[in-house]
From TrEMBL:
It comes from Maudiozyma humilis (Sour dough yeast). It catalyses: L-homoserine + ATP = O-phospho-L-homoserine + ADP + H(+). One of its GO terms (molecular function) is homoserine kinase activity. Its EC number is 2.7.1.39. Residues 74-157 form the GHMP kinase N-terminal domain. The keyword Cell division does not apply. NCBIfam families: thrB (TIGR00191). This is Homoserine kinase. It holds the Pfam family GHMP_kinases_N.
Amino acid sequence: MAPRNFVIKVPASSANIGPGYDVLGVALALYLELHVTVDPALGGETNSDPNNCRLSYSADSEGAATVPLASDANLITRTALYVLRCSGVRTFPSGTTVHVVNPIPLGRGLGSSGAAVVAGVMLGNEIGQLGLSKQRMLDFCLMIERHPDNITAAMMGSFCGSFLRDLTPQEVERREIPLAEVLPEPSGGEDTGLVPPLPPTDIGRHVKYNWNPAIKCVAIIPEFELSTADSRGVLPKAYTTQDLVFNLQRLAVLTAALTMDPPQAELIYPAMQDRVHQPYRKILVPGLADVLQSVTPRTHAGLLGICLSGAGPTILALATENFEDIALEIINRFAKQGVQCTWKLLDVAQGGSIVETSIQE
Ligand SMILES: Nc1ncnc2c1ncn2[C@@H]1O[C@H](COP(=O)(O)OP(=O)(O)OP(=O)(O)O)[C@@H](O)[C@H]1O
Ligand SMILES: N[C@@H](CCO)C(=O)O
């Protein structure tokens, strides 16, 4: 049988954009790539993995030194196994190799886990030739990463708003099943034979907004990792009406303001203010309060707005020019707190996740 080769590409993303906590996500042109081969002739080489998958990362990949390579421990391949097992397929086909090239820094607020989950679901779909639509694949993603903002942007591309629809009590039961029962647990070689829960259908709903292409994304990336779980852990369980209305008003204006030409800093900057997550996360990111207060369209021409990217610690600055000046100002402010940073200038990724296929004779 001819070997199958394909490449899966999934963009990074920045969630929230200030007021849109767990709602807004923008896909960024920085791509996680899986280079996949299924070649039965390689079977002997992949058998050392209990699920027939030889996984590797390029040496320069983010996470190359730390991520697990066993297929039932790595987030990408665990996710693919979940999708396959929902269809009654227990393992990868003999002779599966997955080589990962990952430029998305882990645990920094640039959607690395969202990209890994989307890539894993697409891998399961492609390997199992399941023919799932992107909308259905989103359901599988949402069983694992349970807020829709990064996942939707990474899967669909562009600038998205999303929500989870009201679920019936039976659907809620299925979706809120502990993660350990969704993803296969590292098993020490033993497949428990458990069939994981199928996701309810159409859990997530989304729209794509326009995005003025003159608006570029400047990501200033601190060297330290902040797990999304920890960064969610500092948020309160309840909010005042004033704080919720503050965010809702800005969210409604921001989604339109980012489409307008020319972009208006006097509208975008205040519309990117937030009272739901950033104030509480300041204790986790030294220098965040100073950066958010001090770097403004008045101090830096071309700057439109500034916020914490996702759960942090990365800062997202939206700008039309002076990208390096803006980035260096923020880098210097973090340096005063002893935090070193790098920065990237990124376009919005319009297309979302793709599979590029080629068949070798
Ligand atoms: N390419 C990858 N391969 C394997 N595991 C990954 C990969 N990318 C992310 N992960 C897993 O996801 C974890 C990071 O997820 P986390 O949600 O904390 O941060 P993030 O997704 O980068 O940030 P945010 O959700 O705020 O944008 C990593 O520690 C690792 O376990
Ligand atoms: N909306 C999420 C994005 C990170 O995954 C958060 O801010 O926690």
